[in-house]
């Protein structure tokens, strides 16, 4: 059974051209003029792009005394409706839990997925067992390890643990990721604010100023450089962090930065809303920033110092957010975004001229496929690539509303915003998974995508580090000691 997408304009990270796309089974069979297939999808007037890859989701995540409310079923339904065909979720071992056991638990949860998926393994504690199991995780198709520099007393790891883990990543061809905020300072500021009577959601933002993110980003970059490993900084929200990444890249370091669609489009005024629920629903870490910081993130995407736009989809209901009434530190941190990432980025990025269409594809799909070492299987429109495709109608428009979303929660942080340029058809590995507002793929049809270790950048960096490593100078005329 073949499907041909006819009459559209193919947009990839580097090219825009008129062509049909022929899909045979799971993969793309041909890209070119006048292709013929058993079933035809008319894409006239629309753009055909690689399906979105969201490298940062937390589906059914145990966190802050509860579980995020979108699981792999509803979360990946939301993804498909938003043109995203692969998610990378975070596997979080409990303290002292084996990484392999945790991985098994995450595979179990992901059995419900409707899109392809992968995991990042979080380093939530450190010891010989973790050191020994990291290569086993890599053997199981995971080449990234996440480190939380915040959430003191829960997920946070210290510098010595990070250095040990980053060094292990270098040895096994894996890449560390960081949530970069100074967890000690955040914990101090939280207690100070509470003691001063600042217990509402706005205090969440006060407790995590851009400086704590900038400092942690600089520290993580230094540790990665000393360990000789590339680094990926998740949810970069401010100039302080972006500046650290930009500077490191200018020095030749292999550092990547990931802004979120929320930080690009929502600002700190959200926390000053007089409605407690409204403000608490937007509590996430790092918090939303001001316009100057948003401009910095947009500039980073345009100039290439930031590479990926993700969501950090971690959806809690209003009921769950109310755990923090009277104490903002107990508001579960996280917001949704999976369903709206592409439409929001198209509307606020491409339609405003901040991004080209090709930059849009790079930021939503191709760059992360390369960083995660799954390109061109994912993130490409080429014969042999997985037929993960999105047809985006640049004229289609809607007003974002929780009433019509696929996500399981009862609100949407983008509620009421008008978006123009919508994913209208999504194909997941060759099957029509979303069309005319309907999810057509069944729960459980997603597949785990193995990501091999040793991507080209890791290999290049280890060659360079070896070449420039300190070397003993052999001397003949050594003066006699005194
Ligand atoms: N971002 C957030 O507030 N929640 C999810 C966990 C994390 O990524 O820090
Ligand atoms: Zn985080
Ligand atoms: Zn996250």
Task: Give a short summary of the structure.
The protein is α/β, with parallel strands linked by helices and 482 residues long. It contains 15 helices and 20 strands.
Describe this structure in words.
The protein is 33% helix and 21% strand. With 482 residues, the chain is of the alpha/beta class. Strands 3-2-7-17-18-19-20 form a seven-stranded mixed beta sheet. Strands 8-11-12-13-14-15-16 form a seven-stranded parallel beta sheet. A four-stranded mixed beta sheet has the order 5-4-1-6, with no helix packed on it. The protein is globular, with a radius of gyration of 22 Å. The relative contact order is 0.17. Bound molecules: N-(aminocarbonyl)-beta-alanine and zinc ion (2 copies). Residues 58, 179, 284-285, 312, 314, 333-334 line the site of N-(aminocarbonyl)-beta-alanine.
Keyphrases for this structure?
482 residues; alpha/beta; 20 strands; 21% strand; binds N-(aminocarbonyl)-beta-alanine; binds zinc ion
- Strand percentage lies at 15-25%
DSSP helix fraction? 25-40%
How confident is the prediction overall: mean pLDDT? 97
Query: Helical region count?
Result: 15
What is the terminal separation in angstroms? 86 Å
Major sheet strand order: 3-2-7-17-18-19-20
Q: Name the assembly state.
A: single chain
Fold blueprint:
Elements lengths: L1 E5 L2 E3 L4 E3 L1 E5 L2 E6 L6 E4 L4 E4 L1 E6 L4 E2 L2 E2 L4 H10 L2 E8 L7 H12 L5 E7 L5 H12 L4 E5 L10 H14 L2 E5 L3 H13 L5 H6 L3 H18 L3 E3 L5 H12 L4 E3 L3 H5 L10 H5 L10 H13 L14 H4 L19 H10 L6 H15 L17 E11 L18 E11 L2 E5 L2 E2 L16 H12 L15
Helix pairs in contact: 3-4, 4-7, 7-8
